[in-house]
Specification:
The complex is a heterodimer of chains A (about 425) and B (about 200). Among the domains of chain A are: about 170 residues, Oxidoreductase, molybdopterin-binding domain (Sulfite Oxidase, Chain A, domain 2); about 120 residues, Immunoglobulin-like (Sandwich). In chain A, about 15% of the residues lie in helices and about 30% in strands. Chain A has eight helices and 23 strands. In chain A, the strands form six sheets. Chain A has a five-stranded mixed sheet. In chain A, strands 5, 6, 9, 10 and 11 form a five-stranded antiparallel sheet that branches. In chain A, strands 18-17-21-22-23 form a five-stranded antiparallel sheet, with no helix packed on it. Chain B has a domain of about 130 residues: Cytochrome Bc1 Complex, Chain D, domain 2. In chain B, helix 3 packs across helix 7 and helix 6 packs across helix 7. The chains are: A alpha+beta (about 425), B mainly alpha (about 200). At the A-B interface, helix 1, strand 3, strand 4, helix 6 and strand 12 of A face strand 1, helix 2, helix 3, helix 4 and helix 6 of B.
Chain lengths: ~425, ~200
């Protein structure tokens, strides 16, 4: 029912769609899909990784492999997204397999609503029009000639954490719990710079950002955000954007829900009022217990997630273990992350291992001496607006069990006496 | 410096700073460009081809019209394979028709279906979305008349317009949807600068 679900839904195969279209009969001609897309479809879900090679007994006694044009990961590790669906699909970042704060671009989560388009950057343009003095079309090459910025920001789907909120299971990994948040270094031009080129009419209060995919995904953005820290980016983690991240250009609205960071950006139109697209009305609104639904809930509230120890890890025995995780806030900098090993009765501030920049994920760590008894690990983020990450119970009390986005309650991991670790949603 | 001269000087400084394109204040060859002059004036034909959005006040709706009766075969041919013969939905494709009406209690249970009649605040959004994104495997193939017709069909099935209604730019924008007044602005930030959990 809910295509923006962060829980696995039945895979959509292109073959069944085409079959369905054939049954539907005449009236509208539905196009066939490329054969290579069908072949890709057959590959899902991802095949089990091959067994690791046999390493020589002593790798210092013979020359190793040659250099290569493009490097690969060690055959001993297989971090993978968990893709679900094709045309309307999702894939989750495997937080349990990653280090530091930067998500490798090929493991950045994806949420697609009409497939990943193939776009020739030489033919792609960005049109800015509406309430401007001069409607302008920019080629990608034009955009790259502007003064650029390089900044680190997270992108999080506002549906991230839905399964943990609604249908939690002990056997959920960090990837299942919060895999729709990823953190990257982005390179691009401030949208404000482009708006100075076009000029902005005094009555322009909102803009429509539209993507060049097959659903022309469109969201309304307040002009205040456009003129603050919004970027039109072409670079991610040292390379051009990947196709599924918006190649050749995407909108980046630091701290705003992922859906608004429109990929394959092709058009920006300035207007006086929000445009009320499907994605900001029937989707990405938050039902509340008072019979209302919150609209334009853009900012992602502070959140944290312990990535280790976490399911499916098993601690080999009592002793020192690092509690590690990620914290982020869409409203500013993370100022503190507290961790607890007794289910929130006592808290200690964790070390913050990476620079504290606004609207970016930070890595936290706190060493923990496990005594072998059952323990309940938790983390709690605090941002520089003074917001403290709430418990799940607090969140459910104000939002209701059926609310649909912004699931930032405290996450917990239960460590059993045998060292096994499972997810605990009730905090 | 007299106070008047100082004032003029300060105003000049602010005016100069306001012309800057970013925080860096030195460009080779031109210290303070108002614009970089990149990109080209957008041709009217390009704007017209891309300017497809429809606003709640009806701005952007094209000429044309359609009735529920005209929309029924369009729905059957273009929509039913994913959304079901009666708009009941086929996961992950959403249910469009038949969600419960009367109490907007979606926060109590995520399984309550949110459909056009009980959750969509603006009828114009239907036209905008169908035109830009539907049908899924052949977006942009419906004519303006077909889009009005299938919109009229869906609204009729949800009991929002009577049979025989010919929807066009004017009548579609005039529809007040049942869910219209249920949407409230984001108040999470509250009066304490973001400390509240709401």
């Amino acid at each position: 029912m809910d295509e923006s679900s962060s829980q696995p839904s039945p895979p959509i195969t292109r073959r069944t769609l085409i079959a369905g279209a054939a049954v539907a009969g005449a009236g509208v001609i539905l196009s066939n899909l490329p054969v290579d897309a069908q072949q890709k479809a057959a590959q899902q879900p991802a095949a089990a990784p091959p067994p690791p090679p046999t390493a020589p007994a002593d790798p210092t006694k013979a020359p190793g492999a040659p250099t290569t044009a493009v490097g690969e990961r060690s055959p001993f590790v297989h971090p993978q997204r968990a893709p679900v669906g094709e045309i309307t699909g999702t894939s989750f970042t495997p937080h349990q397999d990653l280090e530091g704060t930067i998500t490798p671009a090929d493991l950045h989560f994806t949420r697609i609503h009409a497939g990943v388009p193939t776009i020739d950057p030489a033919r792609h343009t960005l049109l800015i029009h509406g309430l401007v003095d001069r409607p302008i079309e920019f080629s990608v090459a034009d955009l790259k000639r502007f003064p650029s910025v390089t900044r680190t920001h997270f992108v999080e789907c506002s549906g991230n954490g839905r399964s943990a909120y609604r249908t939690p299971k002990p056997e959920m990994t960090p990837q299942h719990v919060d895999g729709m948040m990823s953190n990257s270094e982005w390179t691009g031009v401030p949208l404000d710079t482009l708006l100075r080129e076009t000029g902005v009419k005094a009555d322009a209060k909102w803009l429509l950002a539209e993507g060049g995919d097959a659903c022309l995904l469109a969201r309304s953005v307040p002009m205040s955000k456009a003129r603050d820290d919004a970027l039109v980016v072409w670079g991610q983690n040292g390379e051009p954007l990947r196709p599924e991240q918006g190649f050749p250009i995407r909108l980046l609205l630091p701290g705003y829900e992922g859906n608004m960071n429109v990929k394959w950006l092709r058009r920006v139109k300035l207007g006086t009022e929000p445009f009320m697209t499907r994605w900001e009305t029937s989707k990405y609104t938050d039902p509340l217990p008072d019979g209302k639904a919150r609209i334009f809930s853009f900012e992602m509230d502070a959140k944290s997630l312990i990535t280790s120890p976490a399911y499916p890890e098993k601690l080999s025995g009592p002793g020192w273990w690092p509690i590690r995780g990620l914290a982020w806030s869409g409203r500013g900098r993370i100022s503190r992350v507290d961790v607890s090993s007794d289910g929130g009765k006592t808290w200690l501030a964790a070390d913050l291992l990476s620079p504290l920049t606004p609207k970016a994920a930070v890595r936290f760590e706190r060493m923990w001496r496990w005594d072998g008894n059952e323990s309940l690990l938790m983390s709690r983020a605090v941002d520089d607006a003074g917001y403290v990450q709430p418990t799940m119970a607090q969140l459910k009390a104000v939002r209701g069990p059926g609310t649909d986005y912004h699931f930032n309650g405290i996450r917990a991991w239960r460590v059993a006496r045998d060292g096994s670790v499972t997810f605990e949603a009730n905090t | 410096m007299s106070s008047r001269i100082r004032r003029v000087f300060l105003v000049a400084c602010f005016a100069f700073a306001a012309c800057k394109l970013d925080a860096r204040n030195d460009y080779l060859g031109d210290k303070s460009p108002k614009q970089f002059g990149l990109g080209h004036a957008a041709p009217a034909a390009d704007i017209a081809a891309q300017n497809i959005d429809v606003s709640p006040n009806g701005e952007g709706l094209p000429a044309g019209s359609g009735t529920p009766e005209q929309g029924a075969p369009v729905y059957a041919a273009a929509c039913a394979s994913c959304h079901g013969a009666n708009g009941e939905g086929k996961p992950p494709y959403p249910q469009l028709i038949g969600g419960p009406r009367g109490n907007f209690n979606f926060a109590s249970d995520f399984k309550i279906p949110r459909t056009i009649g009980n959750y969509w605040p603006y009828a114009t959004t239907l036209y905008d979305y169908i035109r830009r994104a539907m049908p899924l495997t052949a977006p942009g193939t419906l004519t303006a008349d077909q889009t009005y017709a299938v919109t009229a069909y869906l609204l009729n099935r949800e009991g929002i317009v009577p049979a025989g209604t010919a929807l066009d730019a004017k009548s579609l924008a005039a529809i007040v949807m049942p869910a219209r007044d249920h949407f409230v602005q984001d108040d999470r930030r509250g009066s304490t600068g973001g400390k509240n959990v709401r």
